């Protein structure tokens, strides 16, 4: 629409021998068209990345080994396809600053360390611990990481764990989520 308007204005200018055309107005129109185009390119290069996944059932602690990756099997959101439900790995689809969150609930006389790991390095750690009493203990983490395309972030069990199970059901969910901030 604007483009054809500019074309018509340009044609009129050429036809009428410039003087009748307001040069400043024409420049303004062209400038605004150029910035619109640049804005569009910015939007195209900055893709959205966001995921939210959780466990579909409780996880028995005796089935968890040291440094075992938690494979959150229920995928609610996976914009940008960074989360792989087979391995539990999140692979950064592009460079950027990312925010990750975990929530883990230990149930009645249970505990488990939970680590957020980037390319094999521990970046954050938390400990859901209700080992000495009957009740739930909810542990969460929020971790802001600068990632390069291809970096892998995952959540795994730490060294210390024991007891019954980590809970994920209609009362609480064991989840892993993240998004690209910038
Ligand atoms: C998942 O990440 C781990 C640790 O970085 C890596 O060893 C493994 O190959 C990855 N698996 C897949 C399927 O990408």
From TrEMBL:
Location in the cell: Secreted
Chain ranges of the C1q domain: 44-182
This protein's record includes keyword Transcription: no
Signal peptide segment: 1-17
Gene Ontology, cellular component aspect: extracellular region
Stored Gene3D superfamilies: 2.60.120.40
SMART domains (alphabetical): C1Q
Domain of life: Eukaryota
Keywords: Secreted, Signal
Matching PANTHER family: C1Q DOMAIN-CONTAINING PROTEIN, CEREBELLIN-RELATED
Entry protein name: C1q domain-containing protein
């Amino acid at each position: 629409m604007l483009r054809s308007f500019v074309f018509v204005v340009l044609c009129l200018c050429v036809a009428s021998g410039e003087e009748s055309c307001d040069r400043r107005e024409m420049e303004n129109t062209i400038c605004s068209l150029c910035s619109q185009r640049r804005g569009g390119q910015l939007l195209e290069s900055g893709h959205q990345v966001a995921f939210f996944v959780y466990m579909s059932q409780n996880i028995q602690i005796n089935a968890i080994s040291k440094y075992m990756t938690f494979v959150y099997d229920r995928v609610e959101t996976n914009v940008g396809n960074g989360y792989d439900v087979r391995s539990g790995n999140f692979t950064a689809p592009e460079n950027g600053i990312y925010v990750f969150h975990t929530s883990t609930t230990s149930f009645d006389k249970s505990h488990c360390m939970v680590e957020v790991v980037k390319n094999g390095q521990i970046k954050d750690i938390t400990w859901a611990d209700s080992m000495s009493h009957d009740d739930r203990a909810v542990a969460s983490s929020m971790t802001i990481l600068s990632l390069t395309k291809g970096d892998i972030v995952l959540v795994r069990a730490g060294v210390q764990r024991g007891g019954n199970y980590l809970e994920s059901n209609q009362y609480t969910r064991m989840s892993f989520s993240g998004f690209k901030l910038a």
